[in-house]
Amino acid sequence: EEELSRSSHTNPGKSLVNGIKTNPASSSPKSSLPVPMGPPVYVDLAYIPNHCSGKNTDPEFFKRVRASYYVVSGNDAANGEPSRAVLDALLEGKSQWGENLQVTLIPTHDTEVTREWYQQTHEKQQELNIMVLASSSTVVMQDESFPACKIEF
What we know:
Blueprint: H1 2-10, E1 15-17, E2 20-22, E3 41-47, H2 49-52, H3 59-64, E4 65-72, H4 84-94, E5 103-107, H5 112-120, H6 122-127, E6 130-132, E7 137-141, E8 144-148
Parallel strand pairs: 3-4, 4-5, 5-6
Antiparallel strand pairs: 1-2, 7-8
C-alpha cells in the first residue's frame, strides 16, 4: 500500500496493473502487455477477485497464486457469480502445481452453481487435495445474520 501510495503521489497519472505501471487513459486492465513469468506466489489466504466472476480469474491465476485458502464470494446467478469457469480453473491450475498441498475453498454463499460443481467434481477435488468448507456457524450483527467460518493460521 505504501508503495502504491508513493507511486500515485510521484506519478499522479499512473497506476499499477499486474504489477506494471500504466497510464489509465491509455490502457485497460486487459492490456496487451504480457505479464512477466516468474515463480508462483504462496499465500495463506486469497480472495477470488470480482465476486468469483470469470472476467478476471482464469487457470493462470491459480497456477501463479497458490493459497492454502481461497475465499469464493458471489451470489448473483444472473451475472454469472460465482462462475463455474472460475471453479473449474481452480482444478486446472492446482493440477499443475507439481506438489499436493492442501487447499481449502471457502464459499461465502451456498449457491446452486457451487453445489453442482462440488458434486460433479468431488473425485477430482479429492485427487488434488482440495477441501470445500461449508459454514455451520452464523454471525448476527445489527439485525442481520450470515454464515461465517473461522480460520486459524
